[in-house]
C-alpha cells in the first residue's frame, strides 16, 4: 500500500512540473502538406497561447503532419525570433525520417505523428520569443516546407 501511495505521489509531482498542451500555432508557409495538433510538454503555468520553458531542460511533443505528396526525405529546422532578429536554435536530431517515430517515404494524404524533443541550451537568455519550426523536404530538386509552424514561447528560470 505504501509503494502504491509513493508511486501516485511521484506521478502527481511529475504532472505538476510540466503540462502537455496543444499550442496555438500559426502556419508560416506550409507548401507540401499541412499540420495539426502541436502538443508540447511545457512548464507549469503555460497556456495554449504561451509555452514556458527553462534553460537546460528538454521538452517532448508531437505534431500531426499530412503531406500532399510523397516525402522521401526531410530536415527539421528550429529558429528563435526576437523582434526582427531570427537566430538558429540548436536541434541536433534534424533528420525528419530518423528518430522521430516516422518512417520515410511518407505517403501523400496520410497523416503521421512526428515525435520531437526540444532541448533549451543552459545559456539561453530569459526572453519572450516566437519559435519557428520548419519541416523541409527536397522534392524534384527544390527545398520546400512540408510544414512551417510558429508559436509563442517564454524562456525563464
TrEMBL record:
GO cellular component: extracellular region
SUPFAM superfamilies: E set domains
UniProt cross-references to SMART domains, sorted A to Z: ML (SM00737)
Biological processes, Gene Ontology terms: sterol transport
Keywords: Lipid transport, Secreted, Signal, Transport
Main location group: secreted
Domain of life: Eukaryota
Annotated compartments: Secreted
Example GO molecular function: sterol binding
Subunit: Monomer.
Protein function: Catalyzes the intermembrane transfer of phosphatidylglycerol and phosphatidylinositol.
Family membership noted in the UniProt record: Belongs to the NPC2 family.
Name the UniProt record assigns to this protein: Uncharacterized protein
